[in-house]
Amino acid sequence: MIRTVKAFDLKGQRILMRVDFNVPIENGRVTDEFRILGALPTIRYCLDVGAAVVLMSHLGRPGGEVKMEYSLIPAGETLAGMLEMPIKFSNDCISQDAIDTSLGLKPGEIHLLENLRFHHGEVDNNSEFSASLARHGRVFINDAFGTTHRAHASNVGVVEHFRNRGIGFLIEKEIQYLKGVIKNPKRPMVLILGGAKIGSKLKLVEKLMDQTDSILIGGGMAFTFLNASGLSVGGSLLDQTMLNKAKSILNRARSRGIELILPVDVYSGKSTVDTVPKGPMAVNEIPDNMLGLDIGPKTLERFADALDHAKTIVWNGPVGMFEVPGYERGSKQLALILARMKDEGKTVIVGGGDTAAAIKTFGLTESMSHVSTGGGASLELLIGNPLPALQSLEV
Ligand code: AMP
């Protein structure tokens, strides 16, 4: 059993909370607040019940060195603005000064620690480093879903020092949707897959095949499937090592009566920086010197038809190269269709870092039932693999 933050009497307590403030920063400013917003409900709850909160997070990959471009100061400023209150900040997460600041916190105060990954001990899950971190609090709460698939000091090593340990509202919601809903979905369930890394997505298909009624495949991974079904795909992304697996999934879907829809038309470009899309063209007419970079209108129509009957929809991976202007259209249209479906009462779950980023750029994050804050972690949870940071919280 894993306890949630509500299971503890937190009044007057000092809580050490692992959050995921691994946010993009440009010119000293946070450019996407999604993950900070995700941690707010748990932080607010702890403050409201009269606890003091010590927040710790990583940001980027500074490799165990102090590199100010990876400082959490901008994240702290954003958080202070959201909560409309000052927060204390320590520029080293385990210094005696930092620990003294935590020990001196009053109920309702927040102390943010500098980037955990300025120390090698974090990623190495070093026991001395974990023990130092543990001195900051009396109760441990993890609400950093995005790192739950990693065994680091701040989410695994630190845990053994706490009898009172549990998860925050964000992780609770992620588990509810990515594990609960998926385990027993309202049928029909439609799985939409896209993106470039086909290997991890195929694991997801294999895992969810029993409860999936339709599988819609777009993005770069679609071309391996198209090629596996005998079509030439021009210069499009193709993973030769996955051809046999793709063939076997096509066969399994057919024999089980699962509808599997691949693109019939695409917009293409000469390279991944070619911002003038050509097309739409049929998938088997992509010239050898061009790549399919977005799904076309006929494909979108087929996807929309298949989604019409769905009650649960899971989307992982953009259906086009949405970061390049001109190729975001398919993913945007699809997101708009899903937003409408959510309004009609369907459950729409979006997982994966890039898909969440795409939805965010379209301004549709709030229009889905759940957009996961974790990329790798959401895929692992969907696949059903154990997450070390959650396992360590079992009591
Ligand atoms: P993944 O991490 O596997 O979800 O892949 C996400 C990446 O796939 C994004 O950066 C997209 O730009 C990329 N992507 C989507 N569609 C295509 C495509 N047709 N060809 C190449 N890359 C694509």
Q: So, CATH architecture of the largest domain?
A: 3-Layer(aba) Sandwich
The CATH top-level class label of the largest domain = Alpha Beta
Q: Using the alpha-carbon principal axes, give the shape.
A: elongated
* Total domain units: 2
SS-derived structural category: alpha/beta
Distance between the termini: 6 Å
Major sheet size, sense and barrel closure? 6 strands, parallel
Superfamily (CATH H level) name of the largest domain = Phosphoglycerate kinase, N-terminal domain
> What is the gyration radius calculated from CA atoms?
23 Å
Distinct ligands, ions and cofactors found in the model:
adenosine monophosphate
Supply the number of helical segments: 14
Q: How do the strands of the widest beta sheet line up side by side?
A: 5-6-4-1-7-8
Helix amount: 25-40%
Strand content: 15-25%
Question: What labels describe this entry?
Answer:
Rossmann fold; six-stranded parallel β-sheet; single chain; 2 domains; 14 helices; 36% helix; alpha/beta; binds adenosine monophosphate; 395 residues
What does this structure look like?
The chain has 395 residues and is of the alpha/beta class. The protein folds into 2 domains: 5-171, 3-Layer(aba) Sandwich (Rossmann fold), CATH 3.40.50; 185-383, Phosphoglycerate kinase, N-terminal domain (Rossmann fold, 3-Layer(aba) Sandwich), CATH 3.40.50.1260. Helices cover 36% and strands 17% of the residues. It contains 14 helices and 17 strands. The chain has helices spanning 34-48, 73-83, 96-103, 120-124, 127-134, 169-183, 198-208, 222-228, 243-256, 297-308, 329-343, 353-361, 376-383, 388-391, and strands at 14-18, 25-26, 29-30, 52-56, 88-90, 110-113, 139-142, 165-167, 189-193, 214-217, 259-261, 265-269, 278-282, 291-295, 312-316, 347-351, 370-371. The strands form 4 sheets. It has a 6-stranded parallel sheet, with helices on both faces. It has a 6-stranded parallel sheet with strand order 11-10-9-15-16-17, sandwiched between helices. Helix 8 (222-228) packs across helix 9. The longest helix is centred in the N-terminal third of the chain and has 15 residues, at 34-48. It is elongated, with a radius of gyration of 23 Å. It binds adenosine monophosphate (AMP). Adenosine monophosphate binds at residues 194-197, 219-220, 237, 292-293, 317-318, 320-323, 352, 354.
